[in-house]
Amino acid sequence: MKCRHCNSEVTQPFCDLACSPPSNAYLSDEQLDAAEIWAPLRTYVCGKCFLVQTQDFHVPDELFVTDYGYFSATSASWLKHCEAYVNMISQRLELDASSLVVELASNDGYLLQYVKELGIPCLGVEPTQSTAEAARAKGIEVISDFFGTKLAGQLVEQGRQADLIIGNNVLAHVPDINDFLKGVTQLLAEDGVATFEFPHLLQLIKFNQFDTIYHEHYSYLSLLAVETISRAAGLTVFDVEKLTTHGGSLRVYLQRSDTGQRPQGPNVPVLQKEELDAGLADVASYGKFQSVTSDIKFDLLEFLLEQRQAGKKVAAYGAAAKGNTLLNFSGVRSDMIPYVVDRSPGKLGRNMPGSRIPIVAEERIREDKPDYIIILPWNIADEIETQLAYVREWGAKFVRAIPELRVW
Q1: Which member of 47, 99, 216, 349 lies 3.0 to 4.6 Å from 283 by CB, making a disulfide possible if both were Cys?
Q2: pTM
Q3: Based on the domain organization, do 358 and 249 belong to the same domain?
């Protein structure tokens, strides 16, 4: 296996989750009579650039299809996070009606709607038609395509260069990360800034977040790896922030290496040292992660079997991709969890990939009155607990499997 960034031979395993289908390949009822595509879900770390990456992956048009089911605007806490970001970054960069903001993987316009409200010209790039149409309905211009040097070159030829490029939870989804970041360099104005948010590999390791590993995530990113890959693409990281989103993320700020004038902020060396102290520059340290995944799987299975034997009802909330990784690795099917509740219109009435558990509306909880509700998107557990506070009326309890089994 060759490294996706530096083409070095990659031999050090990080995490092997056996086989699973693509985590966002939700199934219609008609598709339940057909076979699914399953592929090995293994990750390795490059000993040269320390990029953690999947071994096997599907081509992008198999993963991000026309009726892609994930709509970002379904999470209230995520919308609040994005609105706060837009207000902050527009002031920090002094963006106005003469600026251009480009968001890569703009989804349903969840973020650019706030840019538009400020009167700042903006453009979304989103390959999935269902989410792109939702953004266009909000009056946002969207190009339905995958981003890279080809599209960046076309935009530059049109005289469009970005003062700000935004990429939230997209950098890990890019199969050709080199071409993607070179495209960012092309599209940025001379004094432009790009910000990328992504789940932090260090948090994944510290808090056993193996369920964030799935085929759509080609890379698992540290500041160390992002700096290396960005530098090769002509970009320099000048600032970084820790975020609480997605179980612990980073927001990195980049500028063109040839024209950027912003000095490096104090957070960069602090986080560099934290990663070095945690062993992220020691390839051997990555081999220790595998054992925790099996412990989490068996704890979940033991809990589900105990509740089945006791005659208790168990439901799940949140048809998230991370939930699909957990359920498929654990071998959970509808005989243990009969349904998953979700609010996303793109998922309701469909079935979880692999486990084939039906996805239903929240009314099912009120009707069924389960004894336990497993929160699959644990990163927004507080939001979900508040939303479902009424289940306490009949004594229901919440459950999460990661970073360890917890019932409350």
Answers
A1: 47
A2: 0.90
A3: no
